[in-house]
Amino acid sequence: MLQKFMDRWRQWEYRRYFYLVLGGKIGGVLLCLAVIKGISSYFFTPAFADEAAAAPAYINPINTMWTVIAAFLVFFMQAGFMFLEAGFARTRETVNVILEGIVDTCLCGLLFYAFGFAFMFSHGNGFIGYHWFFLQGVPDTYESTGVAFLAYWLFQYAFADTCSTITSGAMVGRTGFVGDLIYSFIVSGFIYPIIGHWAWGPDGWLATMTPMAFHDFAGSTVVHTIGGFISLAGAIVLGPRIGRKFKRDGGGPMPGHNMAIAAVGGVILWFGWYGFNPGSTLSAMDAVGCGRVAANTTLAACAGGLSAMFWLYPRNKVWDCGITVNGFLAGLVAITCPCYWVSPTGAIIIGAVAGVVCAYAVDLMEWLRIDDPVGAWPVHGACGIWGTLSLGLLACGKYGASGPTGADDSSPVTGLLYGGGSQLMVAQLIGSAAITAATFAFSLVMFYAVKMTGTLRVSKEGELEGLDLHEHGGGAYPELIGSGSVASSVRAAAE
């Protein structure tokens, strides 16, 4: 091989080719080194180094990014709520439902910036926080989470927005838009954050109860029970829609205009729940806990959807899509509180029971002649209570708390059926009852006060015309305006 090389080396063309290839390789290496040097010189100048040094070492970037991504997922649930409520609404109030969801989102963001977050998550006393108004004087991280403060704010804002949007579901079709703005201001700015502080505030009286604190991992009570009972109060004060005839009177629920939209909205909510529940760990470092919470969330939803569908089939002799959607949402609501502390088997039980609870809660609303077009109270109110209490029964005694560097299972949460005694169940009963009663009472006062202003419910003429035309000047389906189907539905409602 050496002799062959020497023979070729004597040829000028070969030597020229060798020098060309060698020079090209050396030039390529030098060019790569120059690029690396240029990039490092730009990005790692003293100015950039100072900025890096200014960032506190105790901010955990992995946990912060996990929390931000979870916040995006929870925020996307607004699209699910708008689809779900629009699908269960009638054609002539679709734009109203969509716009209410958008405006609630915008309004909640500004209120949570100004004082909602301060009331709920800052230090104060057992009933209300009173620091960090307008996000002034905030620390680098929220408490000991290691999550950057504004990332935590964004995550909790998405939760607050969810609670506000739940409320509108039971009030579809007859709420004036100005009235909606007024009650949304009070719900997002005062009711949700102040009552939520009791359970989730750093010094909330439920969070610091002895001998056992109230537990609500991701919000079966704080988000869903509060939202569900605000919606119940609103439906009671508003009264039913014109033309709504209940089963006791020989009628039944008014069908929604588009079950396809409603079902897609429900599945979007399911997807967003993977930010809602696993994101509440605030810790990507607790990988096992995140995986367990996500799996439990999935299993509860599956069990809830199937149990609701099969439970009602013998009565109606049809496979009902609406109750199936609300069934898996009921399972999701119920598992939201205990998702970190129960086993997969426990999650299936919780979801299956929630589907049945939802079905009976719908019957109860019908019997009481309360018009709730989307089932907001059966799904969020009734199943929120069940999910909260289920922790006192089914916490399996293996898991403690999620932390910034991983799980801390030194003090596991144990329910009654796993030999944990009654202390946890008592704490869950106290917390659920206190938050439910306070929310319902304050909400009734709020809605009656708004009703006195004359803005809560639209006029009879406006309701018959349809909120889209009356309040917003146009509908989602303009080609249907004046058609026989719409006109006949208005006449039927008037009768």
Structure description:
This protein has 495 residues and is mainly alpha-helical. It has a single domain, classed as Ammonium transporter fold (Orthogonal Bundle), CATH 1.10.3430.10. The chain is 66% helix and 1% strand. It is built from 17 helices and two strands. It has a two-stranded antiparallel sheet with strand order 1-2. A hairpin with a 2-residue loop joins strand 1 and strand 2. The longest helix is centred in the first third of the chain and has 32 residues. The protein starts with a helix and ends with a helix. The C terminus is likely disordered.
> SSE order in H/E notation?
HHHHHHHHHHHHHEEHHHH
Q: Percent of residues in helical segments?
A: 55-70%
Shape summary: globular
CATH class category: Mainly Alpha
The CATH topology is what?
Answer: Ammonium transporter fold
Q: How many strands, which pairing sense, and closed or not: the largest β-sheet? A: 2 strands, antiparallel
Rg over alpha carbons: 28 Å
Q: Helix segment count?
A: 17
- Contiguous runs where pLDDT drops below 50 for at least 5 residues: 39-55, 483-495
CATH architecture descriptor name: Orthogonal Bundle
Under CATH, the homologous superfamily reads Ammonium transporter AmtB like domains
